[in-house]
Amino acid sequence: MQYFQELKAHNKLLYRSVAIFCGFTLFLSLLGHQITPFFLWAMFSENEQPKYEQEIIDIKINGKPFNYTQELIDANRHIVIGTLHYYYDMKTGSNIDPNRQFFKDKLGNHYKTIQPAIERLTNDATHYKTYENWLHRYLERSTHQSIQTLEIGVQTWQYTPDGKLNYLNSKPLLSYGL
Amino acid sequence: MDYRRLIWGRKQKDNIPSLGIEQRKWLSRLVFGGVILSLLYRLMAHALLSQLAAPVFIYPYVDLTYWALHLINIPQFISRHYGLALCFDILLFIAALGGFFFIQKRVFPITFGILYLIYFVSYNSFGIHHTHCMVGVLLISIPFWFRNNRTFTLLWEGLRYFTLWIYFSAFLWKLLRGSLFNYHQGLANFMNENATHIALNPDGWLTPLYTFFIAHPGLSFVASTIAILMEGLFFIGFFTKKYDWWWFVLPIIFHTMTYLFIHVMFYELLILNLTFLSVKKGMKTGGFKEKIEG
Question: Interface pTM (ipTM) of the complex?
Answer without folding.
Answer: 0.94
